[in-house]
Specification:
The complex is a heterotrimer of chains A (288), B (311) and C (402). Chain A is mainly α and 288 residues long. Chain A has eleven helices and two strands; from the N terminus they run ααααββααααααα. In chain A, helix 1 crosses helix 9, helix 6 crosses helix 8 and helix 9 packs across helix 10.
Chain lengths: 288, 311, 402
């Protein structure tokens, strides 16, 4: 039982890292970023490459990745996505355009990554067994969990207790209304998109220490992130975190108590059930 | 979708007739491209039948397509049934499933609907893999037939033609009228007394039916069916993208999305064989910026401009 | 007026004839070889290790020594490659392209069972011999009857499982493991097939599967699976796994300090990266494949592989892939023609001298391969195989520390 809770929470940490970034990008900047998984894998590639060629600890890479990913994603938003934002006359149109554009961006990123490393990013870091409350698990997952918590708490505090954070939440609620009260919506959106990308890349670097990724696996993480973000309800960071927790615990419980073969099926089933009873997601706003 | 007239039907019939002769004038390579093109035309058009008027983006195409392919593989390989059996059974199974899903999703809207269909498709994929592992345990699903590319092409052409015909009939019917109003403003539609739920469910059922039929027809081409290949989320995304690139507002929109898309895809593959993925991505981006309203938008713009020029 | 037109026509005809003559002459000095395999997509990670480097190695070596002797001509190899993105529909289109637009003389068989079977009818129609490596199936008889151009070199699904079964029986008879096995498999076509076959064979041999579970492809957390296997108390662990999960399971086994005497994970155990990631902790881990590094031909091959491609060859199908290229080479040279029918017949009728030893085909199937290998002090040595020399005794797993 304890095994399930501990492993489940650690898995939730992994999922939170995967989804928090997309929550910001979609919830605030309104970009359905299908390249989210590829940004994650880019972070992983950085950690892998720096570790295997220069023995730089992935934890250090995490720090290095933040500014690089932030700037990279900001540039993508500013030059590739802003034209779409400007020309779209409705939210629906922007969604369609961002799906198409980010799909293209994901292909470009895969192409770039494959030319750097076509095979598996096989390395392990801090794969030491540790015991948490009597349950055995690995140190790297625990560290990823701690950092996920830190990011989650940090985001929550920032979004709720600071002016800039409140501005971001305002844009998440309504771009029009925010514009009317004097918030610079394009700048806030760009910032949120960039921050989301940075968080995702950090997540990728951390995850690579215990999951063997390769250049093409991004889509699996994009799908997971989409499920978690929607399940939690768009626009509220608590939603993504709670959804990640639910999925992590459910998957681990099913794997241990029922059958590991049903983990993903069960996860998606929970997702479907939640949406059926709360069509706006856990923390989403009910549409009028 | 705007209602199509008899003129459009005549043009469509003529094109279908032309298309019938493709296998006679092409060699294997272009024919195999034609098969793929026809497959996507059928998938994208049947997708647009539902998503065009309602503006609901469904990512469940992969699930229905997979049911088609998987049932062909399972029935032919594990139970030695002839090809036509799963060809009939699979679309019906998928239609039934689509019906249930349609009802379940009635309260969802926007992006929640989109990702719901995605999650559903993924759940089906995992469930079927699990069922196959634990109950059907197989030595591989081999679909070894004597069906050649031109047989598949004509079958898919038939399906595509059927989808067009259905779309044309629906557009001109009360159902089509209802759907256009739903697409423009669902609240208005409901207040005017249109049974929006019923309309949406019926159309969603047809997309499931046709996607499974296409999946079943194309299965012999692959000869070896792997659940993780036939239930592919990438297929769902590609169908959506092709339909949107073409423009889902017109019945012939997906058609003009699929053909250039396929050509560009081939061209990139040939020009940049070692970096095809990278250049495909760049091509996507280019298309998105150059065609804000899809091909349909661009074509109609040109049409309008020519019309203005004349007067 | 008439004179200029007349001369113009002659000039055009002459130029055309000249170009045709020149290109004909050039075209005949080159053997066009087509290769389609994943560079992106789920199977790319494996293809990049096993398939592509060997194609590159072979072509470079041949061209470095002036090409192949076909009859009385020296012909260089021109390689035409495509990325199938691990998509069967894509691969089929590209195969047609190779056959009709690029008009290649020969093809390298695809990577992956599904892809080989999907392209067999197409290549068969153009009479391309396909010397398949990464195609493991129990239906070889039926497939080779249907596609007489298709050759298999890596063994059947049953042979794949048999190797493991033999080791388990050996160790049980020696009293090192009991009757109980913990078995897991990835829920993908290959894993499902292997597990299905294994269930029959292991039970027949009197074993009891005390833990028998599958996990979805792409499972991020395999700790419940490993904990379940550990709790079952079995002293033998068998995983029909793919690269990402082979790595993941090994990590979990280390974390849980899995107490087994026999540990097997299928694909990717033979990758150099496997040892690179875990070092000495995975000593005595068993996996699919194996090789005899002491064989001088293998040693030479591995040295050349590393020197020319910059990568270390894997310890399983790399050698078979290279051997398949050698078969093609010797068949073309031996048949002294580029006529595919003749070359195919030559492959059926003759014996070939390759890095895997002497290779010959019986009903299109070659039975020269390793099925199980074991990491022994940094080298993945073959322990079970068919028609191969140099099998070393199977060691027991003794803990998971360096």
């Amino acid at each position: 039982m304890l095994d399930i809770i501990v492993s489940g929470l650690l898995l939730s940490g992994t999922y939170a890292l995967v989804a928090m970034g997309l929550n910001l990008q979609y919830g605030v900047a309104r970009i359905m970023n299908l390249a989210n998984g590829e940004v994650l894998v880019l972070g992983a590639l950085a950690a892998f490459w720096l570790y295997t060629t220069a023995q730089i600890s992935p934890l250090l890479t995490v720090i290095l990745v933040i500014p690089v990913a932030f700037i990279g994603n900001w540039l993508i938003y500013r030059f590739l996505l802003t034209p779409l934002v400007r020309r779209s006359k409705s939210q629906g149109q922007l969604e369609v355009d961002s799906i198409l554009a980010t799909f293209g961006i994901s292909f470009v990123l895969i192409g770039i990554m494959v030319s750097i490393e076509g095979g598996f990013f096989a390395y392990k870091y801090l794969s030491e067994p540790i015991s948490i409350l009597g349950s055995t698990t690995s140190l790297n997952r625990f560290i990823a969990f701690l950092i996920a918590c830190a990011i989650g708490i940090g985001l929550y505090l920032w979004l709720n207790k600071t002016r800039s954070g409140v501005a971001v939440r305002a844009v998440a609620v309504s771009t029009e209304a925010s514009g009317l009260v004097g918030i610079n919506v394009p700048r806030v959106s760009a910032f949120a998109f960039a921050l989301g990308g940075a968080i995702t890349a950090v997540g990728g670097a951390l995850i690579s220490t215990f999951i063997t990724l390769d250049a093409s696996i991004g889509v699996v993480f994009t799908l997971k992130a989409l499920i978690i973000v929607i399940m939690g309800g768009v626009g509220d960071i608590r939603g993504a975190i709670v959804a990640a927790c639910i999925l992590g615990l459910v998957e681990t419980a099913v794997a241990t108590l029922i059958d590991p073969g049903l983990t993903l099926a069960a996860a998606y089933l929970i997702f479907i059930l939640i949406l059926l009873f709360r069509p706006q997601g856990l923390f989403g706003r009910a549409s009028t | 979708m705007k209602p199509s007239g008899w003129g459009e039907l005549a043009i469509a019939a003529f094109l279908v007739l032309l298309a019938v002769f493709v296998p006679f004038v092409t060699n294997g390579y272009w024919l195999s491209i034609a098969v793929t093109t026809m497959m996507y035309v059928a998938l994208a058009t049947s997708w647009a039948l539902f998503s065009g008027p309602t503006h609901y983006i469904s990512l469940a195409t992969g699930a229905f397509f997979g049911i088609g392919g998987y049932l062909v593989g399972s029935m032919m390989s594990d139970y030695q049934l002839p090809f036509w059996v799963p060809l009939v059974v699979a679309p019906l199974v998928a239609a039934g499933l689509a019906f249930l899903i349609g009802i379940a999703t009635l309260r969802l809207s926007g992006v929640y609907f989109v990702i719901f269909t995605l999650g559903l498709a993924e759940m089906i994929r995992n469930l079927i893999s699990w069922i196959q592992n634990n109950f059907l345990g197989s030595r591989g699903l081999y679909v070894l037939t004597d069906l050649r590319d031109h047989h598949l092409y004509w079958m898919l052409l038939g399906v595509a033609a059927a989808v067009f015909l259905l779309g044309w009939v629906v557009n001109r019917s009360r159902l089509g009228f209802a759907l256009r109003i739903i697409g423009n403003d669902e609240t208005v539609a409901r207040h005017v007394g249109i049974n929006t739920a019923w309309a949406k469910v019926i159309l969603f059922t047809t997309t499931g039916f046709f996607a499974a039929l296409v999946g079943a027809i194309i299965a012999p081409r692959w000869s070896y069916i792997e659940p993780n290949q036939v239930f592919s989320p990438q297929l769902s995304f590609l169908v959506v993208i092709m339909a949107l690139l073409g423009g889902a507002g017109r019945l012939w929109g997906p058609l003009v999305g699929v053909i250039p898309f396929t050509i560009i895809w081939e061209w990139v593959n040939v020009q940049f064989p070692n970096q095809s993925t990278l250049f495909l991505g760049l091509a996507f981006l280019l298309i998105v910026y150059v065609l804000p309203n899809g091909m349909v938008g661009r074509i109609e713009q040109l049409h309008a401009r020519m019309g203005r020029g004349r007067s | 007026m008439i004179h200029t037109r007349f001369f113009k026509r002659i000039a055009v005809a002459a130029t055309a004839a000249g170009i045709a003559f020149a290109s004909a002459a050039v075209a005949q000095d080159v053997i066009k070889l087509g290769a389609i395999a994943p560079k992106t997509g789920p199977l790319a990670g494996g293809a990049v290790v096993t398939q592509w480097p060997n194609v590159q190695l072979w072509v470079e070596q041949i061209n470095a020594r002036g090409g192949l002797q076909v009859g009385d001509k020296q012909m260089m190899i021109e390689l035409i490659e495509y990325d199938d993105k691990t998509n069967p529909g894509e691969h089929i289109k590209l195969a047609q392209r190779l056959a009709e637009q690029d008009k290649v003389d020969f093809v390298v068989a695809p990577y992956g069972t599904g892809f080989n079977i999907a392209t067999a009818p197409i290549y068969g129609r153009y009479e391309y011999p396909m010397i398949a490596v990464s195609a493991i199936t129990d239906k070889m008889e039926e497939l080779t009857e249907r596609y007489p151009n298709l050759f298999f070199t890596l063994g059947t699904t049953t042979a794949f499982v048999d190797g493991v079964k033999e080791i388990l029986i050996e160790k049980r008879d020696a009293g090192e493991i009991g009757n109980e096995i913990a078995m897991v498999n990835v829920a993908d076509a290959f894993g499902i097939e292997l597990a299905d076959r294994a269930r029959d064979l292991f039970t027949e041999a009197g074993f009891e599967l005390v833990y028998d579970k599958s996990y979805p492809l792409g499972t991020p957390d395999l700790s419940p699976v490993m904990k379940g296997a550990k709790d079952s108390g079995a002293k033998a662990f068998v995983a029909w796994s793919y690269p990402p999960d082979s790595f993941g399971l090994a990590e979990q086994a280390i974390i849980e300090d899995l107490d087994v005497a026999v540990y097997y994970s299928a694909v990717a155990t033979s990758f150099p990266a496997f040892s690179g990631a875990y070092g000495g902790k995975i000593n005595n881990v068993l996996g699919a494949g194996g090789t005899n590094v002491d064989d001088p031909k293998i040693a030479e091959y591995r040295a050349a592989h590393e020197e020319i491609t910059g990568e270390v060859a894997d310890y399983w199908a790399s050698a078979n892939t290279y051997a398949a290229m050698q078969v093609l080479e010797q068949a073309i040279v031996g048949a002294a023609t580029l006529d595919r029918d003749t070359v195919t017949q030559y492959i059926k009728d003759n014996t070939f001298d390759t890095v895997m030893g002497e290779l010959s085909f019986e009903n299109n199937v070659s039975h020269t391969f390793w099925s199980v290998g074991q990491w022994q002090d940094g080298v993945f040595r073959g322990v079970k195989g068919s028609n191969v020399d140099g099998a070393v005794p199977v060691r027991l797993k003794e803990g998971w520390t360096e």
